[in-house]
């Protein structure tokens, strides 16, 4: 966990550039540092090695699912939330019960969920 002078780092896996830019602006406004990845390979590399406090994983990254990234984060003990326009219906049975942010994003829900994950 970061100290009071260090911004919490969010891994943002989002393949739609405009959505990623909007989310990055919102997250930075609320004091988060953002690492973005639009493709599965880049996201996996960050998930394996970056100093991440929490992650937002779009389920579909340019036609590839982000579940391998979730597995890496789970192994590292890093909390994450999936994001989807389909809500919980976008998750296969193996991932049911994980937190899902519904697109389009509500800023208060987004920040509340991230803060909850960090404090869990």
TrEMBL record:
The keyword Mitochondrion does not apply. Residues 9-118 form the Response regulatory domain. It comes from the Bacteria. Keywords: Phosphoprotein. It holds the Pfam family Response_reg. The keyword Phosphoprotein applies. SUPFAM superfamilies: CheY-like (SSF52172). The modification 4-aspartylphosphate is found at residue 58. This is Response regulator.
């Amino acid at each position: 966990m970061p100290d009071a002078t260090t911004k919490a780092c969010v891994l943002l896996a989002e393949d739609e550039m405009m959505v990623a830019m909007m989310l990055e602006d919102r997250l930075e406004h609320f004091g988060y540092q953002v690492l973005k990845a639009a493709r599965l390979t880049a996201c996996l590399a960050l998930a394996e090695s970056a100093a991440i406090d929490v992650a937002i994983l779009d389920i579909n990254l340019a036609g590839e699912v982000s579940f391998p990234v979730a597995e890496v984060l789970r192994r590292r003990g890093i909390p994450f939330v999936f994001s989807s326009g389909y809500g919980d219906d976008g998750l296969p049975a193996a991932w049911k019960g994980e937190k899902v942010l519904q697109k389009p994003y509500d800023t208060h829900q987004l920040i509340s969920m991230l803060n909850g994950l960090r404090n869990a």
